[in-house]
Write a structure and sequence with these properties.
249 residues; alpha/beta; elongated; Rossmann fold; 9 strands
Length: 249
Amino acid sequence: MQTTPRGFVPGPKPCPHCGRVLQPLTADLNGREVFAGWEPCGCDGAAAARAEWEAERRRADEAASAASWERKLDASGIPPRFRDARHPWARRLAERIAAGDGLYLHGGNGTGKTTLACAAALICLRNGMSVRFAVATKLLDELREFGEAQRELLAALARCDLLVVDDLGKEGAATPRAAEKLFDLFNDRYNSQTLVHPRPFVVTSNFPRNEVAVRVSDGGSGVAIASRLRETTEAVLMGGEDWRIHGKN
């Protein structure tokens, strides 16, 4: 008859709540009998202690989950005022994005373009997609610069699952270098698309795609950007009155 080697196993101990003697438990670990705690007590005090321990663990898990979500939000660049964005079209657009479809949201001021883009992006982020949000004016300013920081920015924007570019064309004509780099960014994402990693982008603008060419740049890069947007995005016209002014949602 084979015997299982036995590690250190402490003796019985009393329940701290009712005094009942609790026997030690053992488990087999790679052929060795090891101590695995004491049997649970069924008294009310022990049950309350277990419930409190489980509640504390849930609180810790929730805190860790909230902290992880905040880190994802910070990394995404979604502005704080839009981190609770809601829109009735958001889920439908998020499904389109997850399927690899790019979207070009255009319309007048206050028609909900940025709200919709962020609401859909938040759903994508919760569903595990990596998201980066960039305001066009700031992005073009950063693309004017040279150096390692610019290369790292372009690489991050090119690699993320979803890129949101807000208010394209509002900034007026960019420098030739910035416009060229913006086209390179769109083109890199376009050329790296696969069935597994479609890398769509969502663009918001006050102007239709054919006007963006001259708004972004009066050179060839502006035309190339508009052409790439026509190839990779579906235009969604955001109509109606300015809901920010008239209080509509």
